[in-house]
Structure prediction request, 543 residues.
Amino acid sequence: MPELNYPTADGVSSACILIADDDYINRELLANLFLDKKYHIIQAVDGPEAVQLTRKQQPDLVLLDIMMPGMDGYEVCALLRREFSDIPIILQSSLSSNEAEIKGLAAGAAGFISKPFDSRLILALVSAQLEIKRDRDLLRRQSGELAWANRKLKHELQERRHVEEELWAAKRETAVANQVKDGMIKDLFAAMCELLSNRDFYTFEHGMRVSSLSRHMGEVLGLDRRQLDALELGGMIHDISKVAIPDDVLLKPGIFDNQDREIMRLHPAMGAKIFSRRQCDPLITDIIHQHHERLDGSGYPQGLRGDNVSLLPRIVMVADTYEAIVARRPYKKPQKRQEALRLLRCEASCGRLDSKMVEVLAQVTENWNPLAASHFVSDKNTRALESFRRKTYFKEPLSDFYNYRYLFFLNSSGLLDIPDQGYTLCKISCCNLDEINEDEGYLKTDQILDDTGSKLHDVLEDAADCAEISCINILFRKGVTYLIYSNCPSSELKILLARLEQVLLELNREWRLRASLRQRHFAADYSMERALYELLADSKRID
Ligand SMILES: [Fe+2]
Ligand SMILES: [Fe+2]
Prediction:
């Protein structure tokens, strides 16, 4: 569409008017009318030139004579109307009839002027049509600008949407990558714990339970995801550096002496040192380092006090203590939840544990027992390995006999099958080993001791093979004394004792060994410790 050259508010530009008339005088007459209007006037002498100039210069208004050679005004008007719908065309003619005017309007003319002209009418009509065109042009320009702004906005929106989509895609990718990374980290931690389980199953199980307990407590406390993850992973590995503790201490099924305790107390600092050197969340390192601290400063390794103990270790130390109380250990029986809570509350009232955390633990364990969880790695191999280690611990390395303390371990671990009718303990004492030692040397004495043990072992194996009722007979050694645990019924026991007496006679014939056999029967609920004490003190000889 032709843009308006027409007067703007500042009057700098002006409208272009085409006057088409074959009569020179008329053209000049009309042109003179607009002299003081600052219009730009162009002139055409016939219809074809009018069309040509319009196409070339696109005037803002056309004053068109009807009677012209070549093409009359109607034809030119109709043609220009089709090509330039926005240019107003005013027809002028000496044909002052309604028919001529109607025909002109039908051809698309905006107005009709009869000759001779009324100059005021022409000026008013031209001015009105130019106003209309200017407004129309303005509207079109504005709508064009609006359309352009809309297109621009749409484009910007598309761009922004595209950027947002890329951002979301990147975020999704990052989230997936993080998920994979988190999974890998958890897997690595779990793998480390599983390795630990092959070394010390109790510590492994303990870590897994402390992990679950701590995370549950963190959830009740409304902690954020990072803290919850740190509790889960930190709880899992808080004792991981126990892998560095020697077997003699780590697997010791008895009460620790001071030296054992000193060695065991190294594990928090050792673990923290390993993890602090790596890209591990400091929250996890704090858990490892501080889980044996106590709020009154009595803990280790740093003896931290009060607020110097971080939040997460406060949680883990409560979960850690609780698990240690309620779990079964080779050296202790498991305590009930209520008793554990009583002890923890006592610790809190003394200022060692955080009382708030103790109450959160009470809430968490009210309807959930962390010991009942069955997702721990406790396959046959792990259990067998654990069993083997325990046996190894209790086997005397040179004689290959179980130390008598293994009896206590088996009993406290619930591994001894004690029937309702009770159990029997036998003591076989070698009485004249000192004499033999003096006469024939300690190598001979050791040989006699080994031979004695070996023969006793064979008797027990034979008894197990021949027994009509399945029963257990286990041989232990305590220095130069042998002990036998038996859960055989009296009929089987009699046969066993008779065979043992026979072995002692053979040993006497072969080695000049004088050995005595003492045995006592105990009720099923009779304390093993007490029974052993009484047997060793008992001088009564049973034949
Ligand atoms: Fe620990
Ligand atoms: Fe622990």
